[in-house]
Specification:
Strand content of chain B: under 5%
Number of helices of chain C: 7
Shape of chain C: globular
Distance between the termini of chain B: 23 Å
Largest interface: A-C, 34 and 53 residues
Oligomer: heterotrimer
Helix content of chain B: over 70%
Chains: A mainly alpha (44), B mainly alpha (227), C mainly alpha (285)
Structural class of chain C: mainly alpha
Chain lengths: 44, 227, 285
Amino acid sequence: MNYAQYVLPAYGVVFGAMAAFTAVLLLRGRRLGRNVADEDKPWT
Amino acid sequence: MLRSLRLVAAKDLRIEYRSRVATNQVLPFALLVLVLFAFALDPDSGTLQRATPGLFWLAVLFALVFTVQRSFALETADGARDLLRLSALEPAGIFLGKAAALMAELLLLELGLGVGIVLLYDVPTRAGGLALVVATVLAATCGLATVGTLYGGLAAGLRVRDTLLPLLLLPVVAPVLIGANRAFEAALGIGGRATSEGWPWVGLLTVFALVYTALGLVVFGPLLEES
Amino acid sequence: MTTGGATAADTEAAPPTASGATGVAPSPVGRHSATGTKATRVIGVLALIGVPLLLLLGLVTSPEDVEMGDSVRIMYVHVPSAWLAYLAFAVTALGSVCYLWPRTRSLAWDRFAGASAEIGVLFTGLALATGMLWGRPTWGVYWTWDARLTTTALLFLLFLGYLAIRRLPAAPEVRAKRAAIAGLIAFVDVPIVHLSVEWWRSLHQGATVARRDLNAELDGTMLFTLFLGLIVFTLIYVWLLLHRSRQLWLEDQQLDTSLDAAIAERRRESGLPPAAAPSTTGAAT
């Protein structure tokens, strides 16, 4: 693949950033959700 | 509403007249910026002449940040904001009044800056461009004043006001910077532009001013309520 | 990126002491992720299928462009990122308007607006980064002030300002109104910014070297990959939006309960009996 030094980092940045965002989101969510009962949440 | 407008505008301008912050501090600062630009860009290479519109409007933007902070610092001190809310003045009138006062102060600053650039930057003046220059200044300043009043109201009384306001204000007024620059370039004939090329930009600036005046009229009431 | 199925590790741990002191019932949260529902699980699974497919098509299967070579592959992530940046901004604007409009006023709109802005910043940054990585092989420079990139950069700054306002400590309603107004001011600006930047840069376009840009005449596979990218990214956005806005609800709840928890802790430490009246409002909007 020509220009691989641009294409691969681009994909890496995109999916890496999304994965990191998601991970932080899920971890924080787990920590926050621990103290609230399921019934109280408006979306369940 | 016109009464509120007049009252608030007169109050702000009277305070400014008595304290002379705009004339004694902000205008010198703006002129200082012009001088600093000359240090940054070599005056001999012609860059300064070509960049004159941009530098002018940048100096105006920096001055805008200070003037807006000042305009709302006046309200926050001594709980004046609450008194303003409790008074019978309509929020729309208060908005227009503060914007009008801000516009007057900015026009004064721009006049000073204009003299500054004519003197310092050796700017070519063209008779045909004068109408364009005046129209641009009016439209752009109106837009800056309305946005400034809106954001000033939003950020007033908040502890981090000073650093927050530039971050909020400057990206939003980017179109004014772009438009006013292109119009000035046309008026001054920079880059070989004809004066006629500048008028569409004045149209853009007018739209900007109208949009934010309308938004301010609608939103200033709720904005004043919360604190 | 799973939303958390039932795993042994997730099931109830012993309730922490603080909750005993405040009288909050130990949470039977264990089996589900805190903010997951059936909807998010479905979307999550679809996204999880889509991502490898996109990677395969984008990096391997689709052909290279006649002019641009393999750098066109960056477009398959750049265009969806940019699309999502604008979508996120639109959602923030919508949430702001709906919050300010008395008939639809609800803190839920504010949470959508805030969550969307956070995700929007992410995608705007990605759009800028991928744009630069595409620009280097194509134009030879990382940044030309072309209309699209410049507008995206301004969008990024507008987002940052909005998020700065949201971070100011305030009661949820105060913060919501303030942020909604800020969101409106920024949103109303976007078309004007777009127009002015387009006009401005089009003045220069003729003079510069012919710009190689992404044209509509794309090979079938390339077009498909692009659309796949759009769909996958949109799914990811929705998934993130739902989770994050629910988290914001949890955070607001915590504001109520954490104060009580802290007070109870202080009382325990100093040997006082626990406070008699519970003071949490506990109510969502």
